[in-house]
Specification:
Elements: H1 10-42, E1 43-47, E2 57-62, E3 71-74, H2 80-86, E4 93-99, E5 104-108, E6 111-114, E7 117-121, E8 138-139, E9 144-148, E10 165-166, E11 170-176
Antiparallel strand pairs: 1-2, 2-11, 3-4, 3-11, 4-9, 5-6, 5-8, 6-7, 9-10
């Protein structure tokens, strides 16, 4: 004889309710954990220790290409000058995108212009007295950006030691949070 669930004694029905509840919690937990993992894999939280940017905390979205005015975070190129000033493996740099692919960079003395508008002043030497090389002039190549800083001592695309920031170097685009 077949008995309906409503006809089962309460002590036999309760274990089934608990099993369904545990299964539901397991499914919801798995989905929630997966969403958190996906978010974590696509984002970084950065504390900025440099004075070259006005904010000290950023939420970075990985694998995103910047637009003009965005904060871009990237791996700096390897060079002897960077090694001396920032160590053997410098941390990522954060700058503001001033120039986009196709924009024209020019130098008027120590003034850097993008499409005729002044964006930065270059210095001849680092604060430790080492010579700095002026950055590239001409059209910014496809997939590359002019990344700068409003700080007068900013170490950025105005110098050849950093140069244009290209797609392969970009970690992501940041939004200031503090």
């Amino acid at each position: 004889m077949v008995t309906a669930a409503s006809e089962l004694p309460p002590e036999r029905w309760r274990p089934r309710k608990r099993l369904w509840a545990m299964l539901g919690v397991a499914i919801i937990g798995t989905v929630g954990f997966s969403a958190i993992t996906d978010w974590r894999d696509g984002h970084l939280f950065l504390i900025n220790v440099s004075s070259s940017l006005p904010n000290w905390a950023f939420l970075i979205r990985r694998q995103q290409l910047p637009a003009r005015g965005d904060y871009v975070f990237f791996d700096p190129p390897r060079s002897a000058l960077l090694r001396r000033h920032f160590g053997a493996k410098p941390q990522m740099f954060g700058k503001i995108v001033y120039g986009m692919p196709g924009d024209v960079i020019a130098h008027d003395g120590l003034t850097v212009t993008i499409n005729g508008k002044a964006v930065a002043q270059m210095k001849r030497m680092t604060r430790h007295g080492e010579p700095l090389t002026p950055g590239a002039e001409g059209a910014i190549p496809p997939g590359c950006y002019y990344a700068g800083s409003p700080h007068p001592d900013g170490f950025d695309s105005r110098y050849a030691e950093i140069g244009f920031v290209c797609r392969r170097q970009i970690i992501g685009v940041g939004k200031p949070v503090l």
